[in-house]
Amino acid sequence: MNILITGAAGMIGRKLTERLASEGGLNGRPIDRLTLLDVVMPTTATRFTGKTDLVAADLSTPGEAARAIAHRPDTIFHLAGVVSGEAELDFDKGYRVNLDGTRALLEAIRATGDGYRPRLVYTSSIAVFGAPFPESIPDDFHLTPLTSYGAQKAIGEALLADYTRRGFCDGVGIRLPSIVVRPGKPNKAASGFFSGIIREPLAGVEAQLPVSEAVVHTHASPRAAIGFLMRAAGLARDALGPRINLSMPGVCCTVADQIASLRRIAGERVAARIRHEHDPLVARIVDGWPQRIEARRARELGFKAENSFDEIVRIHIDEDRGGTFVD
Amino acid sequence: MNILITGAAGMIGRKLTERLASEGGLNGRPIDRLTLLDVVMPTTATRFTGKTDLVAADLSTPGEAARAIAHRPDTIFHLAGVVSGEAELDFDKGYRVNLDGTRALLEAIRATGDGYRPRLVYTSSIAVFGAPFPESIPDDFHLTPLTSYGAQKAIGEALLADYTRRGFCDGVGIRLPSIVVRPGKPNKAASGFFSGIIREPLAGVEAQLPVSEAVVHTHASPRAAIGFLMRAAGLARDALGPRINLSMPGVCCTVADQIASLRRIAGERVAARIRHEHDPLVARIVDGWPQRIEARRARELGFKAENSFDEIVRIHIDEDRGGTFVD
Lengths: 327, 327
Fold this sequence. Notes:
Two copies of one chain form a homodimer.
Chain A: E1 2-6, H1 11-23, E2 25-26, E3 29-30, E4 33-38, E5 51-56, H2 64-68, E6 75-78, H3 84-89, H4 91-112, E7 119-125, H5 148-165, E8 170-176, E9 178-179, H6 192-202, E10 207-209, E11 216-220, H7 222-234, H8 237-240, E12 245-247, E13 251-254, H9 255-266, H10 268-271, E14 274-276, H11 280-287, H12 296-300, H13 309-320
Helix pairs in contact in A: 1-7, 4-5, 6-9, 9-13
């Protein structure tokens, strides 16, 4: 197999790369070649014995998308994108990267012709939905995003579905819930605090909570997200039908539930490192976001998330903190 | 008022122009200036005493969108577009005109700045929906188009909503049902036969019916469509909220019901001019189209269609045939 990962230097991209490299295959087929692309030079996959190409490129720059698929990858994980907070602050950059970059990739695939029809796994987001919502968002709920990021992701879904219907590529769009706990430094996503209030206290650092503890949200671990991507790559076209964009499952809970999990697992001293500090911009964005996602189709198609937020906290401690935390 | 109509040489564009010209105003405000734009030179509005600019231009050509709004129209009716059949046959042209043209218009408005925020009425289509459907499509049903035209319209809706949310323009998207009876020559829309089976027999000409008489569809007259456009132009922003794209109401009936209306109004000899001749391409496209549209929000906001298909046939005879038909 020949695999291209765009956005390979991002958190999900790095974890996906390491997982694929350590398994040496995807859905039972060995991986011969990995192309890792990002706007900054990605780091190579350790433990991978096949050929690796590292590419620093912006897909929205003319010619770059064609170069990225020059070796005709069978499977493309298109993770590249500007996150929600940044897309809201920089309108042009958000549309250029999230819309034009995705369209350039689709056009490059189409221009290849010659029967080339790769599986293209596209990471969309539950930010395609916008308030008001029913108690649980069903699979057939309309997309009325309340951020530019959500609008760009919704447009990407529509393009992916049309290019797939026309036979130019073989797309699967997966709407990720908030991926928690993100390791490392905070990024510019408005959802960053959902990770921050777990990650920073476990590292002995104070964390800011910019919204009320009553806020309800749906979460999945980075490990679950990698599982979604790999499942999407292996999904039979017939099982999917023409509605190729799917809401992913997750753990639905309040911020108070998140904090309770942290307290149960790491103790009161750790949980006490969360400081309430309201941020009106973040609160307004989060207010427009979905709370509970039904994800019935995805569950039926074998996509699996965690069963509790406790599991999510434990995965972070295990995977990103070597099993320990700062008491 | 200063009004721009794109797609002004099309059927809806010409009827809207004549209606605005004959009324001399829109929603109680006098019209001083009309800019009529299309890829072919539009004809001037008869009976209009204000200034008229006629422009032959393609909005997707760099610079044309900015020129089109140089006189800062208060209200823009964006009707320009490639129809469904053509967008399916010519992938590049459909995306260039329907997506890039719409985006260029939005970008030109945004680039004007300086507080310029026109009411932009965008004609979308019920082709944004794709089968399978519930018995009646509710306002919160997801958009899963099964044509490139539908995908392009769905993307236009998403752009319009985001540009409106960001304060760059003041958009209202209206999803038109099939507009029937279209006068004149058939166009390349796959829905063309819905008009053809009424228009041609009334003109003494045989008409082809490419689908089964059991096909259910939602229709509105060109007169109703002009009413939708004018209502959309006058709608208060507060009444609309952030969900600015609305499914329009219409008359929902079978092809058999359409034929029965024709027979009731024009007699058996006229109705006998319909010839059944199955067309697999048209049948496949129409199979994926919505049948019954709920349009609850639009009705509550004062958008009105006809109450029966008989009314639609009579409007055609009255408005486009001078009150007569070929027996």
